[in-house]
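Illustration: Aminotransferase.
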Amino acid sequence: MGFSKKVKNLKESATLQAAAKAKALKNKGVDVLNLTIGEPDFSTPKSIQQAAIKSIEDGSSSFYTPATGLIELKKAIIERTRIDYGVEYQTNEVFIGNGAKYVLYALFQTLLNPGDEVIIPTPYWVSYSAQVELADGKNVFVETTQENHYRVTVEELEKARTDKTRILILNTPSNPTGTVYTAKELLEIGNWAVSNNIYIIADDIYAKLVYNGNVFTSIVSLSDAIKKQTIVVNGVSKAYAMTGWRIGYALCQSEIVSQVSKVISQSTSNPATVSQYAAIEALSGNQDIVESMRQTFEQRLNDIFPLIQAIPGVKVEKPQGAFYLYLNIKDTMAMCGYDNVTNWVNDLLEEAHVAVVTGEAFGTSHHVRISYATDMDTLTQAISQINKFIDSKRI
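Result:
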């Protein structure tokens, strides 16, 4: 049977693959401590559930909506963005899709021609590069350093820029590092993008999950010119514990929305109507639950970070946001006799029954990502088993 070259060359999402391996081992009766998946360990708040149920019972969710989403949801997104970012959008500058991941996919399909270049600072979320390839674009990776807190600079971006550069992806707070860019850094990057006519895709999915006095700044709030050059991507999955509902959205120029709508109408059509009604409640309802979850993540981070720092050989920056720790285990691997991080990760799962994600999935060769979106008992037990694994492997 023949398959397209795109599919044959495409790699499965490493985070989902790692989670699947952990689940397969668990199905065999092994007690696996799973630190792979980036989703809150909270149920969707009751008020959001009830809004969905109401839409089912009154028949509202029985029908198609416009391909780019309900006008009521677009208005809720615009109002939430006005409150959170201090920036105004119109309804023709918003589109809604089946999760932020699909929103990104639709954007790349819309904006890229074969050979167009997309600058991606490393480490990066696993699906960016694959989606660019699916759109026949070219990934241009710009390596950041732990010494600079995994932030890319304008000087580094300028070195990577060519006349084919079309898009810069900027994720703050970052998955996997938890880095949050300052307003000054964002202004410099934004002005650089404007002067070179490069779109910024601002992946703000973790915008509400920032800790220990750090502050999220939306790049679109810094100037009208930067706002015009930027496509904000966000969703309800992380901040509202709604990963399963699959609602993401983008805010951008109306000309982009009108073109993306063609892709959506010919691929998925509208996102599930019931999920859209749930998202309206999430964005326009009481926001106290968001702060409560944020505080829980912050406390977990502060509790486990000293334990992570104490793991032999590990070098790690304390995250400012999101819910991941990105561990440099180069020295740890050396003391255990490993020269390949994925082999280390696989053995950790098979022998210590702790599931983490290899840094190779994020574009680095000596790191692992740990999610702390799980309970403290699981986290502390996992760290204990990681330490025992390292002790057993010392050479």
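Reading the tokens back as a structure: The chain has a mean pLDDT of 96.
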